[in-house]
Amino acid sequence: MKPKHLLLFTGLLCLFIAGTTHAQFTTIPDTNFEAFLAPFDDVPGDGRVPTANIEVLTSLSLTTGTPPVTNIADLTGIEDFAALENLSIGVPLLTTVDLTNNNNLTLVSCAFMPNLDTETLGTKNNLTRLNFDTTGLTSLDASNLPALTELEIRNSNLVSILLPTSSSLTELIIEDTLLASIDLSNQLLLNQLQLFQNQLTSLNLRNLPALEQITLGGNQITDLDVSTLTNLRGLQLNDIPITNLDLSQNGQLQNLFANSNTDLENLNLANGNNAAFNFIRVNNNPNLSCIQVDDPNINTGNIVKDPGAVFSINCAPFVNITASPNIPNPLTTEGFNTTVMVEFSTPVTGFNNTSTDVIRTGSIVFNNNTTITQVSPTLYQFDIGIPRACGEFSLQIPSGAAQDINTGMDNVASSIVLI
Prior knowledge:
Blueprint: H1 4-23, E1 25-27, H2 31-36, E2 48-50, H3 51-54, E3 59-62, E4 86-89, E5 96-98, E6 107-113, E7 118-120, E8 129-135, E9 139-141, E10 150-154, E11 160-162, E12 171-175, E13 192-194, E14 213-215, E15 234-236, E16 244-246, E17 255-257, E18 266-268, E19 279-282, E20 290-292, E21 303-305, E22 310-312, E23 319-324, E24 336-344, E25 359-361, E26 364-365, E27 370-376, E28 379-386, E29 394-397, E30 403-404, E31 417-418
Parallel strand pairs: 3-4, 4-6, 5-7, 6-8, 8-10, 9-11, 10-12, 12-13, 13-14, 14-15, 15-17, 16-18, 17-19, 18-20, 19-21, 20-22, 29-31
Antiparallel strand pairs: 1-2, 23-24, 24-28, 25-26, 25-29, 27-28, 30-31
């Protein structure tokens, strides 16, 4: 008969061994996931794999393989991949991915997962790159990723996002989503911003001193202030309902794509460094008639624009009027001849030698004594012959809006009116 203390020791040893054996295995309830992990399994199909075989892996790609990953529906067990740094997932049946316990991750990529709507990341101090392409993701909390530098989300149902609070991001790409708003206020290191084809209606780009490249086409943005982006080199604003675009403070600008913007009316490119332009495409903008530049004789070899849009050093609404010889004032002489040059800020049409009320002295109209020549889309020459004395002279041009023009010239009629 064995001593009682020996039996007790043997019993404790068995319990210890049983407990140790259980701790050495990771449960894998999804049979397809276990089959994918066959190279690291000891007994196929028993619903578990030796933990020691997976906890040292630094890279795992669940995108291709034999058997295929397409039938995996549950990634339970992924939490024991303790050393995992790079993880790529392309499993279409997955609806959730929980990476809370994988604290050594530096790269996570999820692609072609239309059912994925939840990704739980937790705090990841080492994660630098995060990518989602063609997923069902609706929201993302990346606020606890202090090392994240690159975030990319494409082709998803994303409606909300929280960016890192650490100002670590240098590249942010969000394309083809349902996102209507985003807070970029803390992203001081952001260098490249691509927010193409979302639902954004406004965007605050202030306090982003490192930003050089911006893509915003295909959104619903109506107003954009880029005046503080002194390092901006590239801007893409195709197909958005913006009406005014002022780039006069962006002296480093090299490339601009702002075409197919049917509401764009004002474009200011006079940044003092037009010589740095590499490629400017501002065509298919039917309401853009004037482009403000440093020099109207700018090299157009790298600029694509609509034929009706002219270059000018001042696109603010104006009419420059010069007369030669000067019109006597008051008009007391028996008549005079003069040439009046009228330059408009934008191209105008709709009047010629038969226009009504072009030249008027008091109540007398002298259309028959006026010849109108269009010198350019914005410049007209009026050769005027006034055959008799009159007390007041008005030049009336039917451009659609009545306003008084102060010519600032001596001996020129005091009443020159646009109608």
